[in-house]
Each structure stands twice: as structure tokens, then as C-alpha cells.
Design brief:
The chain is mainly alpha-helical. The protein is built from 3 helices and 2 strands.
């Protein structure tokens, strides 16, 4: 994580928006090893922290659009994630989870 190598491949879980900010977008984030900083990102983060509800949701979308346009995380691979159950089992999906957590699997009857 010291920024020595130009590329590393690994997958992080699908986080809540604020988790993404704190783990990847802030200059002090663990997964921002080069301490990349951008005035627009800093401004949006500050505005997100000072807002709530639908205003905050809109600012998260604006931040997401901005980092996409600036190519902070250019996707070059998207793994296919699939799971299969029988008709005897139900699995309830949760937001921000690629697959249902084990505790959400249960008998169907």
C-alpha cells in the first residue's frame, strides 16, 4: 500500500457510499496509497458530511459521477457473481452485498 507498484488486482466488497469515501477517496484512506487529492472531491466530501437525506444522496451521486469522469477507478474486469439454491431454500439479498449472506439462507417452508 505504499504506492511502489503501478497496479494491483483485488476485489473489495460493495460498500455503503460513505465506506467508499473513507476507504478509497480521502487522501488519508488506506486504499489511496498515493494520497491522491482533488479539490472537487474534497469539496464534495465536505458537503456530504454536512448534509443528510436526499440532499446527501444527491451529493454521493455527484461524487460518484465525478470520480468516474476523472477515471479514478477505471474498470477493466467485472467478475460474474452467481449463486444457486434449490426450491427448498430461500435466500434474501441484502443491499451492498454481492451475494446473500449465509444468515439469510433458510428453509423455504
Amino acid at each position: 500500500l505504499g504506492g511502489t507498484y503501478p497496479l494491483s488486482f483485488f476485489r473489495l466488497a460493495s460498500h455503503r457510499p460513505w465506506d467508499t469515501v473513507t476507504t478509497m477517496l480521502s487522501p488519508t484512506s488506506v486504499w489511496n496509497p498515493l494520497r491522491t487529492q482533488d479539490p472537487e472531491v474534497d469539496d464534495l466530501i465536505a458537503r456530504i458530511q454536512a448534509s443528510t437525506g436526499s440532499e446527501q444522496d444527491a451529493l454521493f451521486r455527484e461524487l460518484n459521477d465525478y470520480v468516474i469522469e476523472q477515471a479514478w477507478f477505471v474498470p477493466w474486469d467485472e467478475p460474474e457473481i452467481a449463486y444457486v439454491t434449490s426450491t427448498d431454500i430461500i435466500a434474501v439479498q441484502e443491499a451492498y452485498s454481492a451475494i446473500p449472506p449465509l444468515y439469510n439462507f433458510a428453509p423455504a417452508n
